């Protein structure tokens, strides 16, 4: 157990990976294996280790949950509204990447993910946490 | 005291406020009252309260340490290298704002700041933490 004089938020990373196939954008989502929002779809992501750079955490979580790697991630924005995670205060640094491809790269849900899949932006399921808001902000920013 | 199953970083905000006077950019810095980096200059900023939105923390810390308020802050980037704070793992969300003015707004070092002052970018002192790196990144981004 770890004890501090003042309360501290948990720190996570989330990765929004877009793939454009014949003018249609897809996003890489995972189906959550665990509560909260169990079985809902979400960005691949998870908790930053205490001795791990936040960029490195993003690459690690993306690989662990989807098998996907080899793409440079850009930091987008940090989301920290106090009520965004029912487990308690959690602040998430969001990363993104965009690739264009002939085919959707093969991905596989592993670790905390039941499944991983590329979902066309016009067929989005309900998303966990504030990931719908994050995605909307990203789409505005990227002008997709 | 607050106890968690896994170690957690501390979360801070930092504010880089620029003021352009007759084509010369100045940055609002504070002289630190407390260790680490006591008496060195730094961005106004500080710890996010556990029930406080990170945006709100940025506005609060800026006002507490410099008296300055009334300007919309934009989120820039989050800095989280494990060794960036000698007190232990601390992740900082950096905000910025730019104003143009006839005169430098009056500011006053308060709370954790011995002094607050507008410093021309060509007369920068040594900065605390990784604030020199943050400032360099911001100047690249803003193309000043």
TrEMBL record, chains A, B:
CDD domains: NUDIX_NadM_like. SUPFAM superfamilies: Nudix (SSF55811). Keywords: Hydrolase. Residues 8-142 form the Nudix hydrolase domain. One of its GO terms (molecular function) is hydrolase activity. InterPro entries: Nudix_hydrolase (IPR020476), NUDIX_hydrolase-like_dom_sf (IPR015797), NUDIX_hydrolase_CS (IPR020084), NUDIX_hydrolase_dom (IPR000086). The keyword Hydrolase applies. PROSITE patterns: NUDIX (PS51462), NUDIX_BOX (PS00893). Belongs to the Nudix hydrolase family. This is NUDIX hydrolase. It comes from Ancylomarina longa.
């Amino acid at each position: 157990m770890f004890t501090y004089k003042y309360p501290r938020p948990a720190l996570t990373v989330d990765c929004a990976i877009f793939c454009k196939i014949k003018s249609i954008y897809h996003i890489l989502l995972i189906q959550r294996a665990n509560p909260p929002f169990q079985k809902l779809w979400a960005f691949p992501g998870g908790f930053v280790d205490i001795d791990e750079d936040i960029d490195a955490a993003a690459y690690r979580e993306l690989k662990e949950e989807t098998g996907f790697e080899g793409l440079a991630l850009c930091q987008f924005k940090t989301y920290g509204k106090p009520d965004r995670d029912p487990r308690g205060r959690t602040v998430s640094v969001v990363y993104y990447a965009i690739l264009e491809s002939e085919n959707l790269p093969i991905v596989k849900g592993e670790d905390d993910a039941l499944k991983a899949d590329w979902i066309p932006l016009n067929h989005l399921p309900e998303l966990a946490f504030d990931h719908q808001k994050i995605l909307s902000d990203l789409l505005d920013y990227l002008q997709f």
